[in-house]
Specification:
Elements (H helix, E strand, L loop, with lengths): L1 H22 L12 E5 H10 L2 H8 L7 E3 L4 E3 L11 H4 L3 E5 L2 E5 L5 E6 L5 H12 L9 E4 L2 E4 L2 E4 L12 E4 L2 E6 L2 E9 L5 E12 L20 H14 L7 H7 L18 H19 L1
Antiparallel strand pairs: 1-2, 1-6, 2-3, 4-5, 5-6, 7-8, 8-9, 10-11, 11-12, 12-13
Length: 298
């Protein structure tokens, strides 16, 4: 009989403790117009700075929630919510909610801001697509590259991006369907990986796909700096011809024609003239040719 009483008491205690736990995460007065999935504004900024999901994620890990899914009476955090973590109600009471037109922002208990990327809760695909669209901001100008939710298609091959940290010890890498994408100079390479343990893997030297002009965009065109690419003969060649392509030069070699014709910003013109180049472009070309000359002599 005593054992039965102990069992019953333990069950009662378990439900009591569970109730306390649930109450400390149960939210009240959640603004209905703010329900949805949020990304830290800092995360967006770090992604643009590092062009690396892993580095951005590790940087914000200690200072903010890495994702928010706000529901009617609870708010989950953590990527994929794998540990079931929920925001404390006592912290939620200190939050502020800001509207800017159709956009929604949350300021947490530490004053850190989050931008709503989807009005749906637990919208993993919207979060993944946001990450990919930032990292692939230049590459998606290539007609052979497209993003849809958690998937990115590169020259006919589809890769899946998972929000879990990849456990690949390779700073700056992006883990896609068991492969690693690495931005290298004016391009990016996709490498195979090999297992190094139950949960870990590493990048091999085997390249399965290369993407030219990956890390370039129209907005930053005037800030191009040749010295950044001076150690790569191939990058210098791409950069030099990028200037001509930007001004509508019609390439005669199949290699360059194939590279630049894939981008939506390339508009070849019969009226191209060296005189149409800006002073910055002319100086940049001069510097590039000097670097190329040194490389050929070396």
């Amino acid at each position: 009989m005593k054992s039965v009483r102990k069992f019953v008491l333990s069950i009662i205690c378990l439900f009591f403790v569970s109730g306390l736990y649930a109450n400390e995460h149960e939210l009240k007065n959640v603004p209905k117009d703010f329900i949805g999935t949020y990304m830290p504004v800092q995360m967006e900024m770090l992604l643009k700075e590092y062009m690396s999901y892993e580095e951005a994620l590790s940087t914000i890990a200690e200072s903010s929630y890495d994702i928010l899914s706000l529901e009617e009476n609870i708010c989950y955090s953590q990527v994929r919510f794998s540990d079931g973590y929920a925001v404390l109600a006592s912290n939620f009471e200190k939050w502020s909610f800001v509207k800017r037109g159709d956009e929604r922002f949350i300021l947490d208990e530490n004053g850190l801001s989050y931008h709503r990327i989807s009005p749906k809760k637990n919208d993993y695909d919207a979060y993944a697509e946001k990450v990919l669209s930032i990292i692939f901001v230049d590459a998606i100008h290539n007609k052979n590259i497209s993003i849809s939710g958690s998937n990115v298609t590169i020259y006919g091959k589809q890769y899946h991006f998972d929000l879990y940290p990849s456990y690949v010890d390779d700073p700056g890498a992006l883990y896609l369907s068991g492969c690693v994408l690495k931005i290298e100079g004016l391009g990016a390479n996709i490498y195979t990986t090999e297992s190094t343990g139950k949960w870990t893997s590493r990048r091999t030297n085997k390249i399965i796909q290369s993407i030219p002009l990956f890390y370039w965009d129209d907005e930053n065109y005037n800030n191009l700096n040749a010295s950044k690419y001076r150690n790569s003969k191939n990058d210098l060649k791409l950069l030099r011809n990028l200037i001509y392509a930007k001004n509508g030069y019609k390439f005669t070699t199949e290699e360059l024609k194939n590279i630049f014709s894939d981008f939506d910003w390339y508009k070849p013109s019969n009226s191209f003239s060296e005189d149409s180049l800006s002073n910055h472009e002319k100086n940049l070309l001069k510097t590039i040719k000097e670097y190329e000359s040194k490389k050929s002599k070396g």
